[in-house]
Predict the 3D structure of the following.
Amino acid sequence: MQKVEAIRARVVIAAIVLFGLGCPITSAAAEVQASVVNNLVFGNVYPGIPKVVSKRTADSAAEFLVTGDVGAEVSIDFTLPTYMNAGGYNMPLIFKETYCAMDSSATPDQSNPDYDDLDPWHTITYRLGSTGQISIWLGGKVVPKLVQPAGSYTADIVLTVDYTGL
Amino acid sequence: MTLRNCVKSAACVLLLVLASPLVASTEAPVVERSASIGVSAEVIRPFGIIPLEDLLTDSVAIALVAGTPIATDASPGGTGLLSRTLVLQRPGRSGVLFHLDVDEGIGHDFISLDRLLVSGPSDLFSRGPETAVLILLEAIVGSLPPGSDSCVVTIIYTEN
């Protein structure tokens, strides 16, 4: 009888420990996350001369990485600025309806992405690939005025992702 | 209930209490569903910016000449000529300072700086201080459909 109780107690302890250790693994894997790979960098621009950074230009185009469950569908929303700012001065910033591209393949290709010419002003849905990832690229166009004051202009782009449940 | 059973029960409860923070802390991990990236640009003001209408006045030591007209310039002192093939000459000199085929830019937002510098004459910077002030020319053909009859040209000068 005592042996049975001893075994029962050990089983209970093992179950508790396994439960405690197992939970973080399963819950973390279910989350979808977004991270930044590269900022959108225009470099030097001259007053009166618009400058475009293509979504295909590595190290200059904005690049995000979304990770989550393999094959899950996610919704992707951008919050886009319309101006860059420097010391109280504004400079128009344009994101056209084709300036976004994505690739969820095992070998994402910025120059020839799977999902191209996407509108960053509207919600985009896409499935995480076999690696559980989506690479997202975004280009932009800055339009300095002829009288644009010199300075370092900045703005922020926010990307929000979530599972659609599909 | 024996003392042994009580001790075992207490041990189980203690383990549950110890295990629970593990579960609680991992059910709410730090997960970033959103990410914010920076956009940056450095605006540089060159020595001067001379729009087309100013370029075509006598006060500027460079003139637009020749080519097939695609638009006329009505500014004071303007030559009334904006060429599809853009040629820059210094007044009184026959040599071409800069040559640009605007057609190449039609259909594009603008012609890039690198492309223009590459397409300029190789001796652009070796013609002495009078001509060397021109180091950058940018033609903005912004959203021009093929066959369009207008464009905007901006000339930028800076000190050599």
